[in-house]
Design goal:
Blueprint (H helix, E strand, L loop, with lengths): L4 H36 L3 H20 L5 H19 L1
Helix pairs in contact: 1-2, 1-3, 2-3
Length: 88
Amino acid sequence: MANSAGSKKRARQAGVRRARNAGQRSMVRTYIKKVIAQIEAKNADEATKAFTAAQPVIDVAARKGIISENKAARTKSRLNAKIKALKA
């Protein structure tokens, strides 16, 4: 357990940041699930709209370090490929 004043403050900051990061990560997952739901419903137009809304959320999360840049790129690429396959 933290003993010094500085380490107690660090523990508090870590808790706040962990909660904030968890919320952001959850939001990213929700946006991704919305896109997947439209893809599974075979609704290409709505899937495109959902993907357009999800892209900036994924990018911001990657920029802030919530998810890695590679995971963001991989996720967007896979979703876009599924939407293109749906349209074809």
